[in-house]
Write a structure and sequence with these properties.
Blueprint lengths: L1 H25 L3 E5 L5 E6 L4 E6 L7 H34 L11
Antiparallel strand pairs: 1-2, 2-3
Helix pairs in contact: 1-2
Protein name: Nucleoid-associated protein K1I41_08570
Subunit structure: Homodimer.
Keywords: Coiled coil, Cytoplasm, DNA-binding
Length: about 110
């Protein structure tokens, strides 16, 4: 019994380390998104850190349009980045969790 608990604790610690490594790796995964017409482009990491914003000169003439573009494109990029991040972290957590009866929150 005690050995089982120690084994589970070791597995949990190993999983925590893998999660941290995955979070660091997600800093290198880039998500590109752009407006439908390509006038605004953004790049962010899977950890949702903005790396680049490219704005076509034509958008600089209309502040309100630029703001709308930024909101739409950034939200789409954040959704994609969140999906990638959650999928990666979920896979690591599910793979690394010990099989504890009644504790199937990652299933």
């Amino acid at each position: 019994m005690f050995g089982d608990v120690m084994g589970m604790m070791g597995k949990i610690k190993e999983t925590q380390q893998k999660i941290e490594e995955t979070k660091q790796r997600l800093d290198t995964v880039l998500i590109d998104e752009q407006s439908n017409d390509g006038l605004l482009k953004v790049t962010l990491t899977a950890n949702r850190t903005i790396k680049n914003v490219s704005v076509d000169d034509s958008l600089l003439e209309d502040k309100e349009q630029l703001e709308d573009y930024l909101v739409l494109v950034l939200n789409k990029a954040i959704e994609k980045a969140t999906a990638v991040s959650e999928a990666e972290l979920s896979a690591v957590a599910k793979d690394g969790m010990p099989n504890i009866p009644g504790l199937d929150m990652f299933s």
